[in-house]
Specification:
The structure holds 2 protein chains of 2 kinds. Chain A is mainly alpha-helical. Chain A has 2 domains: 63 residues, no CATH class; 242 residues, Orthogonal Bundle (MetI-like fold). Chain A has 16 helices and 4 strands. In chain A, strands 1-2 form a two-stranded antiparallel sheet. Chain A has a two-stranded antiparallel sheet with strand order 3-4. About 4% of the residues of chain A have low confidence. Chain B is mostly helical. Chain B has a single domain, classed as Orthogonal Bundle (MetI-like fold), CATH 1.10.3720.10. Helix content of chain B is 77%, strand content 0%. Chain B is globular, with a radius of gyration of 23 Å. The interface between A and B is large, with 93 and 97 residues.
């Protein structure tokens, strides 16, 4: 409940106008406000939380950016600024390497190929999560009259349980001697266990879609709840069919929730490490695995830092573009 | 809504089954008397659970996780109370932006948080990795959760109660202790329990920041490589799932009950 609601309002709904409203007002008012001990005390109370984010998220990220310009020489890190790592990632080659029909003209295409692959896998999972979550949120918002709290708790409970264990459960479902195979053999439907269930991108996509399912329902539910019910009546009175009403009223008005849900699932899943490691096998690895290996076995932390900076930048640009598009869409349809 | 009410209900039930079924396999097979996790079931046994108690490595990891989770939950709840009080009680300029910033750890992939904290600890500050570094990482992750819980708790809270107390001659501290704290207590406990659960189950940050130490999720991850150990993991996993569910249900009950009783008293 809480997470969906807050995050929707924080990240998606136009907070911009609120800031503009706050920013108006003269300088003298600002000074008098600052002198007001109440608000000074308010800022002081915020300091610890902001310090945590600043010291433990922003400054480490800055350190990561700095590290991406260093280089690894044997067991030591050489801190002389260099573009070596970025050159390794983007060095051009004359002959392309193809991945899913896309040509990559790169000397070592593995990084960009894995990034594109991770983004695609994550997009498919996100789409699956949203398509399954929307009807559920719709049901919750419009058709549950009693016991709403119980449904909401039922849906959010898995979110709080161990991610590692939820992913692990898919390993035992899809494994060669796993639940699906042994069940089918036991029932006499197949003679030999199927070996294509586990350790491939499909297994990763299924597991991701399941593990992040709970994240998507709440933002969509909250935005559906907020719709003014009289709009439905107006739409029906004006002769819209159920489908038309859905496409012209319900879906556009719940779009902020859908966008929030998409971001909440897409951003963390692109960089997921646990799922590809447990169920992906060699074919199902994602960008998170290669970043981890640079910090571990491959022992090239600066390159790992550069790969993660490039990935985050690409994902951030994609997300901002998506928000811009959906903001325009949302704006015009109002 | 007249249209299509039945099909959606059926869908909702199937959806909830889909959500829970995979995790339910853990307890199911944890009582199965076989090393292989496969059908048909072989017979009932408790030996995997008995094995857990005698496992010294596991118990050490469990103790580590408990210590880290207790500390992380206590610290992040204190920070969350202050932050939530600041943004819910006062119209602060940039308050929304501050909340957005504090929620950032929820949307940054945890592997990026993990490696950047690792870099900070090893290459900038040159600190040895230990349970301390894990705990510090978990505080970062738990603060957003406790802020969210405390904000939802404090939002319906009438400031005039505090003002009345101040007018009647209580000091700021007295007001906090006698008015604010009792009203916020269910939220504080809920925030503590949820942060505790998040920290207890967190794997990726711990994986990067623990050095030679082991927490419970790290122990589980290390056991997954050995097929013969899987039944133990199933039994342990079932205990963890049950424990997390109970903690979260209790926290949620507290949070909601608190809000309701505050309203019914006309507050």
């Amino acid at each position: 409940m809480l997470i969906g609601e807050e995050l929707t309002s924080i990240y998606v709904e136009g907070n911009a106008d609120r800031y503009v409203g706050e920013a108006r007002g003269s300088r003298s008012r600002w000074v008098s406000r600052f002198r007001n001990s109440e608000s000074v005390r308010g800022y002081l109370l915020l300091v610890p939380a902001l310090l945590v984010v600043g010291a433990l998220l922003l400054s480490p990220l800055a350190a990561l950016v700095a590290l991406s310009f260093a280089s690894q020489s044997y067991f030591d890190i050489d801190y002389t600024p260099t573009l070596t790592n970025y050159r390794t990632i983007f060095a051009p080659a004359a002959e392309p390497v193809y991945f899913l029909g896309i040509p990559f003209y790169l000397e070592s295409p593995i990084f960009m190929v894995l990034l594109v692959k991770s983004i695609l896998m994550s997009l498919v999972s996100t789409a699956a999560v949203i398509l399954l979550a929307y009807p559920m949120a719709y049901f919750l918002a419009f058709q549950v009259k009693r016991g709403k709290v119980i449904w909401i708790i039922l849906i959010t409970l898995p979110f709080w349980t161990s991610y590692l264990l939820r992913v692990f459960s898919w390993k035992i479902i899809l494994g060669f001697n796993g639940v699906v195979n042994s069940g089918l053999v036991d029932l006499g439907i197949i003679a030999q266990p199927l070996d294509f269930l586990l350790y491939n991108p499909t297994a990763v996509v299924i597991t991701l879609a399941h593990a992040w399912a709970a994240f998507a329902i709440l933002p969509i539910y909250v935005s559906l709840e907020k719709i003014d019910r009289s709009l439905f009546e107006a739409s029906v009175d004006l002769g819209d069919s159920w489908l038309k009403r859905f496409l012209r009223v319900t879906l556009p008005l719940s779009w902020p929730g859908v966008a929030a849900a998409a971001m909440l699932v897409f951003i963390p899943t692109v960089g997921d490490y646990v799922t590809p490691t447990l169920v992906g096998g060699r074919e199902g690895i994602m960008i998170g695995n290669i970043v981890q290996s640079q910090f571990g076995k491959a022992n090239n932390a600066p390159l790992g830092a550069a790969v993660s900076i490039v990935s985050m930048t690409v994902v951030a640009i994609g997300v901002l573009f998506f928000l811009w598009i959906s903001g325009r869409r949302h704006g015009t349809e109002r | 809504m007249r249209m299509g009410s039945r099909p959606l209900f059926v869908f909702a039930v199937l959806y909830v089954i889909f959500l829970y079924a995979p995790a339910m396999l853990l307890p199911l097979f944890s009582f199965n008397d076989a090393t292989m996790i496969a059908f048909p079931l072989n017979g009932f046994t408790l030996r995997w659970y008995e094995g857990l108690l005698g496992n010294a490595q596991l118990m050490a990891a469990f103790k580590n996780s408990l210590v880290v989770a207790l500390c992380a939950a206590a610290i992040s709840t204190c920070i969350g109370i202050c932050g939530a009080k600041a943004v819910t009680h006062r119209k602060l300029r940039g308050g929304k932006a501050a909340v957005g910033l504090i929620m950032l750890p929820l949307v940054v992939p945890s592997i990026v948080v993990g490696i950047s904290l690792l870099m900070l600890a090893r290459h900038v500050l040159d600190i040895e990795l230990s349970l301390w570094t894990v705990g510090i990482g978990h505080v970062l992750l738990c603060v957003p959760f406790s802020m969210l819980v405390m904000m939802s708790r404090l939002e319906g809270f009438d400031r005039s109660l505090e003002e009345a107390s101040l007018d009647l001659g209580q000091s700021r501290w007295g007001t906090f202790r006698r008015v604010t704290l009792p009203l916020a207590l269910p939220g504080i406990v809920a925030s503590f329990l949820l942060s505790f659960t998040v920290s207890l189950d967190e794997f990726v940050l711990a994986f990067f920041l623990a050095g030679n130490e082991t927490t419970l999720p790290i122990y589980i991850f290390s056991q997954l490589r050995f097929p013969s150990r899987l039944p133990d993991v199933l039994a342990l996993g079932s205990c963890i799932l049950l424990g997390s569910c109970l903690l979260v249900l209790f926290a949620e009950w507290l949070r909601r009950r608190g809000i309701q009783s505050a309203f019914s008293r006309g507050i």
